Amino acid sequence: MLGGFLQQTMSKHNRLGAAVGLAFITTIASAQTAATPATAPVATDNSVTTMQKYEVSDVPIDQQILPTARPFNSVFGFDDNILDVPRNVTIVSRQQMDDVDITDVTQFSKLTSSSYTDSDFGSPANPTIRGQQADYMANGMRQHIGDNGDGMPVDFNSLESVNIVPGPATVVQGASPYVGGYVDVITKRPFFDGTQGFISATTGSYGTDRWTVDVGGPINPKLAYRFSYSGEDDTDSFWYDRIFETTALYGAIDYRPSENYDLFMTGNVFVADYRENFGINRPTQALISNGLYQTGTNINNGTTATAADPQNTVNITGNDTIAWGPVIPVDYRTSANGPLSHAHGQEYNWQAIQTFTASPTLKVINNSAFAYTKRDTYNGDGYSEIDDPTWFLDNRTEFIVSTSTQQINVGLEERFQHDVDLTNFYFEYVNAWDLSSPSLRNDINFQNAAAFKSSIGFFLPVPGWPGRYANSAAQAGDTNNTELGSVSPYVEDEWKLTDQLKLLMGARMDFFHAAVTDPLGPYAAASLGFAEPNANVSLVYKITPTISTYGTVNFSENYSGALADGGGLALGATSTGAPTLTRGLFSEESKLFEYGWKASLANSKLFVTSDVFLQDRQSKSQGSAVIQDQYYGLEFSANYQPNKNFYATFGYSWINGSIPTSPSDYIFQAYDTNQIPGGPPNPFADPAAYPYTHTLRAPGQPLDLINGLMQYTFNNGFGFEVNTVITSPMNNDYWGYLVIPWQYDVDAAVFYKVDKHMEIRGSVSNLTNQHNWQPNAGVYGLEGIMSQPGTMATITLKYKL
Question: Residue ranges per domain, the chain?
Fold first, then answer.
């Protein structure tokens, strides 16, 4: 049945079929020109993983960028060579993250063509992979809990490397609302071979200041530690009124009392004061293409704006009449949030991984994690959210049996999550605000509106938060008090059928129980028990010891349609107003078909991978029914590192997301004013103008994405690097009325390694000062688009112990 479905879909998408043929031909051609066979990777950090030696010239391990240079187990739970893993995987080293200055998940597109993340109000907590929301994990355990990826900024202080895996999680990780893929961050390990560490400081344009202290070493032959502290203070950001101040503390110990037991324990604290960035409102094609902004202020009730109230804030109602003014050149540094906006969050994380090697054929791993998050957001343009608090406890035990012909991972995971989230977005009328002058921006505050004040009662005060209001769950399902528990047995089995052919099969069932109450309402809890299956089948064929090809099928059911803010579950309301949980939102299917090949060439100095994929999934956008999405495309990447002086990476992807819609599948788009001159049709005033009956292309995903990175270091310590990202046109809204054209960004750096201790680096981002745009969350595509910074420069000093 799956084969028939795939064949039928392929016939509808000739480009994908051609790509399959091209990949197959390329695989065979590569087999004819295979380089000297390579051995399996070596454990390159201080983990307990032991693998065969794998050398890349004289490159120190902390500078290696080849994925074959380090052990890997982030997909199926086995310590496999990356060549043997039947999924597309990008391994991003700490060296690469530092070289291209990765500071948030939107920047993963610099190093992998599979990921392009929209602005998500300037604070994305989860990346987007293959055009869909993706998971965020740490050392194999699911972490960030949020809605649509929105949440606190990501703490990069604790990271040693990142594994980026497109497509749904396998049976080892289990069901999730996010099926586009996942990033598994590998945290910093203690050092057993002597004290090591560094101190770094960065300063640059618009008041950017960042600093890090990182040190670790052995306490005794059986115990080692690692400590890292970092902070950031952007006092004058590219965007007006932006706040971004963070403090991050990370600690880890590694205890090895014997050859058979290892305890790796981590803890980190992350505190952030920041402001979300909705971007520039009133988007039109003239704004995107020519930088022209449509001015105009509210004249509801026949009242004109005054000096005391330049926005006519009092009369904003959500059905606003604007007296449109002239079109003027946009100030790319503006944002619709206004200076009264603010956000604060604090996270506390703890994780312990115990590894017990019972025998040469049996290994037992217990992975436990706890996280606590408390955060709040207030945006003057009309949004308020409070998580008070969210926390979870997760525990997974794995029994891994290995023989000469088989590996099997049998495990059990238990998880409990608690979330209290209070949300208000019913007065989020972003297009009502004029951003054309500082006085107008300073006046943005939705709680001044008479219509808002008269609605208090509908908007309820939040206990313990003076001056803050939210909707009850009966009014907006995103407000919730959720308790979600799960018990999840699974098995993943890997058979070596021949010396060249390997079969993987896995199955898992997540048994959930959910109980949700309205934290502002009088109703009793709604509860529901449900189960989510997850299964995968893969074949891997080793054409040569250094070239492999694979095919993978993954099926899962996911509860993305029931997801609410804060990571809780959304309540629906019945005719009596009592809350309910809709069972159909807890079983949304995702089917992935992926074929690819991987090759380690040029005496293990070049790693190349390519794949084609098709994924059908069900999803639910805000204000819509459950709809069927389809994503398909091809991906290619290459990593080359011949010696310690030079390395280069390249990536290309062609990813298309289609969303079949009909009048009954209305995709919510906020739009709250009379028709903007030169703008797309107002869907509320003129719904007939929207072509509901044809297949739509998913917003916020470029059809083509190209990235490249090159670095060269001379023997005298001087060096340079260049990084570029190129994106083809992408829709800002679901209907494609607003299109971001081809864009490119070039970053460059020069550096000097004074000696083995000191390094000086000067970096310039957006070297050619392009006026680039980043799409906002798709459901707000007619109300906002985010400008990207112009040319910015930083200088970094780093001293290694």
Answer: 2-281+314-322+325-800
